[in-house]
Amino acid sequence: AQRVTQPEKLLSVFKGAPVELKCNYSYSGSPELFWYVQYSRQRLQLLLRHISRESIKGFTADLNKGETSFHLKKPFAQEEDSAMYYCALRGDSNYQLIWGAGTKLIIKP
Amino acid sequence: EAQVTQNPRYLITVTGKKLTVTCSQNMNHEYMSWYRQDPGLGLRQIYYSMNVEVTDKGDVPEGYKVSRKEKRNFPLILESPSPNQTSLYFCASRGQTAPNEKLFFGSGTQLSVL
Predict the structure, then answer these.
(1) Which residues of B are less than 8 Å from A93 in CB distance?
(2) Residue B50 and residue A45: Cβ atoms within 8 Å?
(3) Chain CA centroid to CA A44, Å
């Protein structure tokens, strides 16, 4: 079965501390993984995708096939990073994304 | 400005009263989709459409209908809303030129069914 698990509903860290939002997936094929972010009163938007191997707003995410994970990391959290983060997997169908339940990240000053 | 527009932003209705949430995109995208967002459940897909007159069920289609008569519009119809359809709804679109092209989301419709 295809599944995305974000084990933390809420993650709270202090400004300047490292952040890691966990994402684990279940998929037998070669996955494509994404992180989407929803800032307060804004639309959901793509943050990054594993295929691009990019760093956006200081965030990176590495696909670990052995651990079936795609954790989102940032070395030094900023207050503006407070948002809802969703991990998503594109599985068998090119057009459907399978979504995790989301993690609410709160950065404390 | 390229965007997905949903209306209304907020809607309160009563059980059984038919309603329509509109969604329009100006990017000439083939693919459009409806999601509902519930606490602890994340985003769940209701219906999607890969092009005009082509629609298909997502994970939670019960109680919903959609239509795709034109490329830009993809309305979500609740023929007889029930309280368990109280949720935050998002419309999204994407071109089909590449499988990993990003989704563009609307700003959401908060629906309350009393």
Answers:
(1) none
(2) no
(3) 12
Three-state DSSP at B80 gives coil
**Contact residues for B6 (Cβ-Cβ < 8 A; gap 6+):** B21, B22, B23, B89, B90, B91, B106, B107, B108, B109
The Cα–Cα gap between A9 and A3 comes to 16
Both structure tokens of A29: 């094929």
Segment A16-27 mean pLDDT: 96
Q: Do A43 and B107 touch (CB under 8 A)?
A: yes
3-class SS of residue A82: coil
Per-residue model confidence (pLDDT) at position A82 = 97
Q: Which tens digits make up the pLDDT trace of B20-67?
A: 999 999 999 999 999 999 988 888 999 999 999 999 999 899 999 999
User: Which amino acid, A90?
Assistant: R
Whether residue A43 and residue B50 make contact (CB cut-off 8 A), yes or no, is no
**Range B10-28 average pLDDT:** 96
